[in-house]
């Protein structure tokens, strides 16, 4: 019965959920943290500049990549690795 379940598309989704679910949660938490850092800026996108800001704003601040945006990426990596090593799959 278990092998029959894994041959359906829904079964494959459940089988590989230990990879895609932590990845999805890591990406969403990075995105949410990035948006919070962006909106909490003095002038969003300019002070501090995002990595996607024009070069003139990066030159004004003297930094190419601010620590707060690195932190947003690190949060997503921590969420991914925590969920991956804890084994948080979808139950079918």
Automatic annotation (TrEMBL):
Pfam families: ARL6IP6. It comes from the Eukaryota. The chain crosses the membrane at residues 19-39, 65-85. InterPro entries: ARL6IP6. Keywords: Membrane, Transmembrane, Transmembrane helix. The keyword Transmembrane helix applies. This is Uncharacterized protein. The lineage of its organism: Eukaryota, Metazoa, Ecdysozoa, Arthropoda, Hexapoda.
